[in-house]
Sequence to fold (264 residues):
Amino acid sequence: MENLGVDPKLLLAQLINFGLFFLLFSKFIAKPFMQYIESEKKKDMERQRVSELALKQEEELEAHKRKISDKMKKEFDVAIQDARKDALELKKELIKEAKKEAEAVVSKAQEEMKVARELMEREMKEKVTSLSLILVSKVLKDYLNEDMQKNITARLINNLSQSKQPLNEN
Amino acid sequence: MKINPQLKEELKKHLDNEIQKSKEKIIIFSSYVMGQNEIDALLGCFPKLKQCSVDNIVDTSIIGGIIIQYGSKIIDLSIKSALHTFQKKLYEIN
Fold:
């Protein structure tokens, strides 16, 4: 061994050194280090678990939100449809009422027009008859001379005398 | 309101007198002055009125014919009245 350049004493000392180093390292450094790594690993796992849980909760929350949103949308749609239906019915009702009122107004106006026309016709008729009467009176006054008037009186007396019940009996 | 009975009686007498006077008088309205023969012929149609006095009043507005007023009664035989009747009939048409 000496010929190969290996010193057995030094080799032994190195082996003892290595053994001591291994012993000390494994007892005082490797163990806490491993514990630290284990705890970090656990922490990581816990973090991952919490993260997964949070993700899951977030997904659930998202799903819940979506569900609520869908529900709200459906309710909103239903409410909109109901409102549209109500509005349509109200519109129909209003149109019907307006038509009714318009018909009443038209009917009233027609009635008023009819009354006004009748009144106007009556007034016109009265005026025409009054005017005719004035004209006839005027013409008769100008036309009838005393002889004619005497003839009229004579005819009247003749008629009175011929009547079966004379007026003095009343 | 109470009316004095004496005053009421006086008023009644007065009105009776007035009615009696008006009954004794005939007013004939005509468009010209009527002759006595016409008046007599007219009174011939009313025997009860022969005793009454007659007044002839000329009223050209009656156009023609006569109006006899006796008491509170009026017999209207004028053309004016006939025209008014005709006018009323025209109003009543329709």
In short: Strands of chain B lie at 25-30, 53-58, 65-70, 73-78. Helices of chain B lie at 5-23, 36-44, 79-92. Residues 5-23 of chain B form the longest helix (19 residues).
